[in-house]
Design a protein that fits this description.
The chain is α/β, with parallel strands linked by helices. Helix content is 29%, strand content 21%. The longest helix has 19 residues, at 288-306.
């Protein structure tokens, strides 16, 4: 059971949301949405495209509810997917509503998840699906996310961003799907948006028996008891928690401020790890001047924290990126 959150200790409501919907006049939705968020003191990033909306916002619960009610009034957005968490302090500095070509970038024309996505699978039914030996299970997340946890027996495409997924599938199609009878494919991601779009991509490629985990890994970890779980490790999340475990308990990973990759307790033992400066994964990607700059930034962040004030470089939330949930 998830431990109740002390609202007085973590008073900021954080809402991660998405919805694939046909928003033909999405440009006209931007200003009223931005104005409402500003009026309610809401901060964060929302992406708008003709295919729908995606993003994360934070503020008071009443203000968040006003914004969600507004979005739900749009065409085909009544079933907006929303996941709530909380924070002790505001994780964003400003409110941004961006117009995009896609709300999660796959880079493939003609993909319409609102009309042609695969079949949703509820978390309670996921084990039976992936336990079937005739099911191919694909993790649609990026490699650094997969590295800290995934479902047992799933395939890691080793992608750097979601837009790399179609290229990986093109290379591996014959090996994965070369049998006479098309296989059953089950896909998953953190919150549901990437695997939903990937399922529409596979259907456009001619596959019909395509499934995706409703609500993503987070819904599974929240609802499936640990003793019945097929999940191994922790789940990387794009907010101040960094990673979560079963029942959405706090994970053990922290974030490398240089490269935004997750760092485990054992990773911190590497001689290439320096808090706020580098980790083993990114040490070779930066020169001494860049590391010196990060070191000074980290010193300023520590000083700001000691003085009880926020530092502009200290924000952990990583929403607004178009290759994540």
């Amino acid at each position: 059971m998830t431990t109740p959150i002390d609202a007085s200790a973590r008073p900021i409501c954080v809402a991660a949301l998405y919805r694939f919907a046909s928003l033909a006049q999405f440009e006209q939705l931007r200003e009223p949405l931005k104005r409402l968020c500003d009026d309610q003191g809401i901060k964060g990033t929302l992406l708008l495209a003709s295919e729908g909306i995606n993003g994360t916002i934070a503020g008071s619960r009443a203000g968040i509810d006003r914004v969600l009610d507004h979005i739900r009034s749009w065409p085909d957005c009544a079933d907006l997917d929303v996941k709530f968490s909380s924070a002790a302090t505001m994780p964003f500095h400003r409110m941004k509503v961006r117009l995009k070509q896609e709300i999660v970038t796959l880079g493939q024309p003609g993909i319409d998840p609102a009309a042609n996505a695969g079949t949703y699978v509820d978390p309670q039914d996921w084990n039976a699906l992936i336990d079937d030996p005739d099911t191919i299970v694909i993790d649609t997340r990026n490699d650094y996310e997969v590295s800290i946890g995934t479902f047992a027996g799933s395939i890691n495409p080793m992608t750097g961003t979601f837009r790399d997924f179609p290229e990986w599938f093109a290379r591996e199609r014959e090996r994965l799907l070369g049998s006479e009878r098309p296989p059953r494919v089950a896909m998953f991601c953190t919150g549901g948006i990437r695997c939903e779009k990937a399922s529409a991509f596979l259907k456009k490629e001619g596959l019909e028996d395509v499934f995706h985990l409703k609500g993503g890994i987070l819904a599974y970890l929240e609802t499936v008891p640990e003793e019945e779980s097929r999940w191994q490790g922790e789940c990387f999340v794009f907010d101040q928690r960094v990673a979560v475990g079963h029942a959405l308990s706090d994970g053990t990973h922290e974030l490398c401020f240089a490269c935004r990759r997750p760092v485990s307790p054992s990773d911190k033992l590497s001689p290439m790890y320096e808090a706020g400066v580098s980790c083993a994964a990114c040490h070779s990607e930066r020169d001494d001047d860049r590391r010196a700059s990060y070191r000074e930034r980290h010193r300023q962040e520590i000083r700001a924290a000691e003085q009880g004030r926020a530092h502009v470089g200290a924000v952990l939330a990583a929403t607004g990126r178009d290759d994540v949930d």
